[in-house]
Amino acid sequence: METILLLAHTETDGSLAKSAREALHAAATLHKSLAGSKLVVGMVGESVQAAANSIASCPATKYFGIAGKDFSQSRYATDAAAAEAIYKAAQATLVVAPATSRWNRVLPGVAQRLGGRADTHVTGVSVSGDKVTVNRWYYRQRMEATLQRAQRPWFILIDPGSQSPCQCEGGTATVEKVAVALPDSAKRTTVTGFHALAADEQTIRPDAQLLFVTGAGWTKKQADGQTHVSAAEKLIRDFLQFSRASLGSSKSLVDQSGEGQAVLSFLSHLNQIGQTGATPRHPKGLSTCCHGEEPHTVGWRFIAERRAINLDPNCGWAHGKADVLYVADAFAVMGKVNELLAAKKS
Ligand SMILES: Cc1cc2nc3c(=O)[nH]c(=O)nc-3n(C[C@H](O)[C@H](O)[C@H](O)COP(=O)(O)OP(=O)(O)OC[C@H]3O[C@@H](n4cnc5c(N)ncnc54)[C@H](O)[C@@H]3O)c2cc1C
């Protein structure tokens, strides 16, 4: 009989992130399909009561919590000790957790300590008979594998964006406090703060409704024989500010900086989409000034609705890669789109 532990960490404001609700949805799916299984919840953070209350109507029979200043921030030693203590209190066999950067770097180590196994970047869970199956992608999202494991405990880290979040209502949850003995080494690392881009400079937004992709065409000579890089920068920046879209790019464009050419100042290799880049998940995607070659479009695997703007009616997007191709000048189209968005805002 499996005991399924949903293991979540709370956010700095004490709330539960969408990724944790997605992992809860996966854990509840397993619980529903595994006859005789138990579902319990474990939470770690500066405070956990509000987060537990927010999902009080979920089918979990017990809530375990470790709260306090020591657990407010991501730190390997304290997070690993907390995860281990909750696992032991819950006597879990399956541990389902969101694949956040915080848990991704800690839980595989905890699984190792406990003689278990861990799978990160899991995108699906199911049950056939009494066997749990998980799905994950390999080789840059080109091959999907389904895995089963006999080893317990099995830590299953669910990729954010791959599940629908659980819709369980709030209420009052009784949280059982779990004692954790922190090793001396736990206090060796002090988190003094984060160095991160200001929210407006952060162009990669995994939760955005739209992926906006820029290609090398933005920096190429246009009909007047000139390049218009600064105009391109302004159009793209304005659009990102209006739409809050996530910014992706072709490899050609991000590589240009290495060659000393004029490029869009806010792009880095982290924005690259494709075979040697990222494969993000967004409901919609709009490609601009990008040819749509296979090594790029393979990164669009999880973009549900795809549109592209290109001057070339025979570009790669026209060959079954996009749902809609606008054969048009992206400078003109995005100028008009920004004008409409600005009018809507004012
Ligand atoms: C092993 C390998 C791995 C690779 N991995 C990746 C990867 O991960 N990601 C990736 O992106 N690429 C990758 N590539 C490169 C990929 O094959 C392409 O070379 C690259 O995607 C092309 O970038 P682009 O479409 O922006 O540029 P270009 O091919 O130069 O296309 C520019 C486009 O802009 C259009 N254009 C110009 N001006 C305008 C305008 N005013 N309005 C509208 N359209 C306009 C042009 O018609 C043209 O189609 C890889 C290649 C290899 C060999």
Distance between the termini: 59 Å
**Beta strand count:** 14
Structural class: alpha/beta
Ligand types? flavin-adenine dinucleotide
Overall geometry: elongated
- Strand and helix order: EHEHEHEHHEEEEEEHEHEHEEH
Helix content: 25-40%
Biggest sheet strand order reads: 7-6-5-8-4-1-2-3-9
Strand content: 25-35%
Determine the mean pLDDT: 93
The poorly predicted ranges are none
Question: What integer value in Å does the Rg equal?
Answer: 23 Å
Number of helical stretches of at least 4 residues: 9
Task: Write a brief structural summary.
With 346 residues, the chain is an alpha/beta fold.
Structural descriptors:
five-stranded parallel sheet; 346 residues; alpha/beta; elongated; binds flavin-adenine dinucleotide; 9 helices
Task: Provide structural commentary.
- Helices cover 25% and strands 25% of the residues.
- The protein has 346 residues and is α/β, with parallel strands linked by helices.
- The strands form two sheets. A nine-stranded mixed beta sheet has the order 7-6-5-8-4-1-2-3-9, with helices on both faces.
- Helix 6 links the parallel strand 10 and strand 11 (246-249).
- Helix 6 (229-243) packs parallel to helix 9.
- The radius of gyration is 23 Å and the shape is elongated.
- Flavin-adenine dinucleotide binds at residues 215-217, 220, 222, 250-253, 272-277, 289-291, 293, 295-296, 299, 309-312, 315, 329-331.
- Flavin-adenine dinucleotide is lined by residues 215-217, 220, 222, 250-253, 272-277, 289-291, 293, 295-296, 299, 309-312, 315, 329-331.
